[in-house]
Design goal:
Blueprint: E1 3-4, H1 6-19, H2 27-40, H3 50-59, E2 69-74, E3 77-81, H4 87-105, E4 107-113, H5 123-130, E5 134-140, E6 163-167, E7 175-179, H6 186-195, E8 204-205, E9 211-212, E10 225-226, H7 234-250, E11 267-273, H8 281-296, H9 312-324, E12 326-327, H10 330-342
Parallel strand pairs: 3-4
Antiparallel strand pairs: 1-12, 2-3, 4-11, 5-6, 5-11, 6-7, 8-9, 8-10
The protein binds nicotinamide-adenine-dinucleotide.
Nicotinamide-adenine-dinucleotide is lined by residues 42, 44-45, 117-122, 139, 160, 162, 164, 176-180, 184-185, 187-188, 266, 308-311, 313-314.
């Protein structure tokens, strides 16, 4: 399995996207966000996506360089038409604007439509946390990618509808919740297929509604489905997913699941809260320090070594992969090289 440094993988990714027609001011943004996803350990939203995104560009689903248009705006909100540009670029611009607006309005909300897949959504609220604010990103798929069965159902009716919330902390490692409202992201099924792995019981059902560990069942004909988050209390994950569909798809106009839209997109809502306008930052951090210390005092249950807070695993994995490199599985690397050759780079230099 080849192993890369962050810089090598960013160069490879930037080169392929530029050769594939992505403007030079956009390709490095996409590359940085994809590689950041690999760094955190979320390989499902990392460079494994290069062949898919190049395919989207070739078929016109992604139109790199499209203007990010603000359709309506007030000091605290905006509605953005992404004009089908690269989702990562649109989302990063939108979160940057939301942070700016929250500086003067305390709270801001930005809704986005006509936007492609924005990748690992946790990257965007982290920008708010780095600015000392709380960031929230909510995403639906506009009616496409209906892989998740509603609670009690056996056919996919919702997308994996994720939510991410980041809060700054005093020590510089934000607390980051970044989860799908399904048991896992669909991309993790894709990674399992590429690696030839089975998946844990409780992730998937087959077309008969029976539990299965075969990741291929999700794409079989007829297809199986991902389960909503929550196991025996899956009604909670299902309810969360439904509300995310409303906040991401109905508000922006991207469309909700069942809208008939089959074009893959992300209907996005970015929310930012300027903490210092509510409470002194120092006191806020003190409360978080207390909270984190408090949960970590719990004795561990059998099979667990320690209590973690959301975002901690990713922060540790990032430190490890920055030190030891980012492993890319053979099949993903083969596909990346094949894609590079298709866009005119017969041999990747890095
Ligand atoms: P996951 O199941 O790995 O959950 C990740 C979250 O759980 C993180 O916040 C992590 O810090 C936290 N976590 C993990 N172990 C923990 C522990 N022991 N204690 C405390 N917290 C812990 O991830 P997922 O739900 O499968 O989602 C994977 C990725 O897919 C996410 O980054 C998401 O943004 C992305 N995604 C994107 C889209 C899109 O359309 N753009 C759709 C779905 C998912």
């Amino acid at each position: 399995m080849p192993n890369f440094t962050q810089e090598q993988l960013q160069k490879i990714t930037t080169d392929i996207f530029e050769a594939g027609g992505v403007p030079t001011d956009e390709a490095p943004i996409v590359a940085e966000l994809l590689v950041a996803s690999n760094l955190t350990g979320h390989d499902s939203h990392g460079v494994i996506r290069i062949p898919q995104y190049i395919g989207f560009i070739e078929s016109g689903l992604i139109q790199p360089g499209s203007p990010v248009e603000i359709e309506s705006e007030s000091p605290s909100h905006a509605l953005i038409n992404g004009n089908w540009g690269f989702g990562h670029v649109i989302a990063q611009k939108a979160m940057t604007l939301a942070i700016e607006k929250a500086k003067s309005s305390t709270v801001s909300a930005i809704s986005i439509y006509n936007c492609n897949h924005i990748g690992r959504i946790g990257s965007y609220p982290m920008l708010a946390a780095e600015a000392g604010m709380i960031g929230i990103t909510i995403v639906n798929a506009g009616g496409a990618a209906l892989y998740v069965a509603p609670f009690g159902g056996k056919e996919g009716r919702l997308a994996t509808n994720p939510i991410a919330i980041a809060s700054p902390t005093r020590n510089g490692h934000p607390i980051l919740l970044d989860i799908t409202s399904s048991v896992v992201a669909q991309g993790k099924i894709r990674v399992a297929v590429n690696r030839g792995d089975s998946v844990p019981l409780g992730w998937l059902i087959n077309s008969e509604g029976e539990p299965t560990q075969n990741p291929q069942d999700l794409m079989a004909s007829p297809p199986g489905a991902l389960l909503p988050l929550g196991g025996i209390v899956g009604h909670k994950g299902y309810a969360l997913g439904l509300m995310i569909d409303i906040l991401g798809g109905a508000l922006s106009g991207a469309g909700c699941s069942g809208s008939g839209n089959t074009r893959l997109q992300n209907g996005v809502l970015m929310i930012v809260l300027d903490i210092a306008k509510f409470t002194p930052l120092d006191e806020f951090y003190e409360r978080i320090d207390g909270l984190v210390a408090h949960v970590k005092t719990s004795p561990t249950a059998p099979g667990f070594d320690e209590i973690l807070v959301p975002g901690e695993i990713e922060a540790r994995q990032t430190e490890r992969r920055l030190r030891e490199g980012i492993p890319i599985d053979d099949e993903t690397w083969r596909q990346i090289q094949e894609t590079a050759a298709e866009v005119g780079i017969p041999e990747l230099k890095f």
